[in-house]
Structure formats: structure tokens, C-alpha cells
Amino acid sequence: TQLVWNGFNTSTTSISSLSTLNNNFKRDSKILFIKGETTPTDTLVIATSSYLLSYRTQPYSTFAIAFSSNYIETNTPEYGALEFGKISSISNFGNTLYVCDNIRASIYQYDISSVVENDRALGYKFNLTNSVNSTQGSLVSPTLVSSSQNTVYVYDSSTQTIVYFDVNFNLKNSYKNSKLFTESPPVSITYYQLYDQLYVLTSNYTLIILDTDANATIIKLNTDNIVSGESPIKLEFSNSNSDVVYLLTSRNLYKKFVSSITGTIGNYSFVQGITGRNATNTGDVLYDMSIQTSGDPYDNILLYGFGQLINYREVTVFNSILK
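The chain above was modelled as a monomer; its predicted structure follows.
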């Protein structure tokens, strides 16, 4: 099934850009699609370069602002004075959100339970709980962040190093590959829960799989179906099938088996308009994606592209061994 949120409406007959909601929404905005445990509405987190925003969503009905701030400190009524410099990446594990600020060379940790669970008692806001910066964590130019239950992974483009922190931002390990990351910089880092691994996707479709000890396995993905100018954006693992992973590029969404990741099962094609417009799309039309973590027997995919948000429910081949 498909649902498109366009500006203030959920109809595919009257289409407007998401910039009608907030003129800060750009192609470099990042999204997270989070399912609450105690509320019927879902939570959409959007990070622009300088703002964190959250919307409550419900298919075919609700799309309402829940929280927004351009201030880093949210635990005081005045929200402090320090503003985000440039948000380059976001990640969550459960109701813990991590925000990578490239300009301020910092990673911020937030408890977002009150927004996700719609809990008035906790204040309907993201609560800053911890952070690490250039002084504490020797970060120079952090650009990507990913997270697990006990580890925060950060890629620093200046040092060409992937740093492993625990959730209190104590250094655990690191992986450096100056030659590879100079030739092909990482574009996404994604945690794979089944084997406690980090998947690093680079700009030329090289994949580096890191274990907990930062030992690397390097794989080159098959690019036979990739057209000229099609750039890799992100890897996202299936919620309902532990052997399925999605590769988002600037023009397509590919579905792959983790166990044979070099090949492709199939793909969503976005050559033609996705919302009824009989037009051929050219250039980079897809920007980001997120898959809900839930117990549903399908993948609840939220795709950001064409200035819109598109919600797909993809049924995978068989049930996952990981819930």
C-alpha cells in the first residue's frame, strides 16, 4: 500500500511540497519513522540542517507537529542559547535519539520518549541527556552516526575514522581506512542487530562490514543495474526479515538478501511519477528513508523523495528469526 503526505494533506490529487510545512525542508533533511508502544500514532522525526522537528502521523488522517527546536539544550524552559550548527546525520535505538552536528563537532543524545509515547507528564519534548564533542571525544568533523543498544558509531571525515563509543561516550574502539575513505567516502553507516555488526556504505558502492572488534570485511556491490549518475544514499535493514536489506540510491530503492548482498532481489522504480503524474523523472529524486522497528509482519517503509513522504508496506518473503 502507498500513502503520500504532501504538505498539509494526504490526498494524491492535490500535491504540494513538504516545504509548505517548513521552508527548511531540503533534500539534505534526514528522517526517522518511529512506532510508539502505547499510542496509536507514529512519530516522524525530521532533522533539517539547523532544526529538529517531530510530527505525529496516522495513515490517511493525522499529520500534526509535536515538537520543534533549533536549540540544542531542551531541558530548560528557555531552551538555552546554543543552536545547532549543521545537523548531518541522525540515528535512534528505541526512544534514544542521536544527533550528529558537523559544525559543532558534537554528538547529542536525547530521550524522546515523551514525544513518541505522547506523554504529557514528560513535557512533549526531546530531552538532552548526554553529549560528546571535540574535546571529550577527539572529534574533528563528525558526519555520520548510527547506534545500537550499547554502542554509538560515529564516522569522522577529517580523521577518516569510524569511532565506537559506549552510550556514555567512553571510547571503545575505532576503524581507520584512509586509502579507501579518500577514494570513496562513506555515505551511510547502519547497525545490523542480528550479528552485532556495522555496515558502512561508500560512494562507489563498496561495503565495509565491521564486527565488535572493528575487524573489517570489504565487499564490492554489483552495480550492473546502476545507471550513470545514480548515487548510493543509505542501507536500511528489514524489520520483518533478518535476511533482507534495502539500498536507497538517488533514483531507486533496491531490495537485497543480506546473505548474498552483492546481488539484487528487485527494486522500486521511480522513473515515472509516483503520485499520478505522467512524467519522466530525471536527476536525483530520492533523499532518505526509514523503516519502523515493530513486530509487524511487513516492513513499514517511509521514503523521502520528490519533496514528499511516501509510506510503503512491503511484505517480505518469510518471517524473520529476529524480532
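Confidence is low (pLDDT under 50) at residues 1-14, 319-323.
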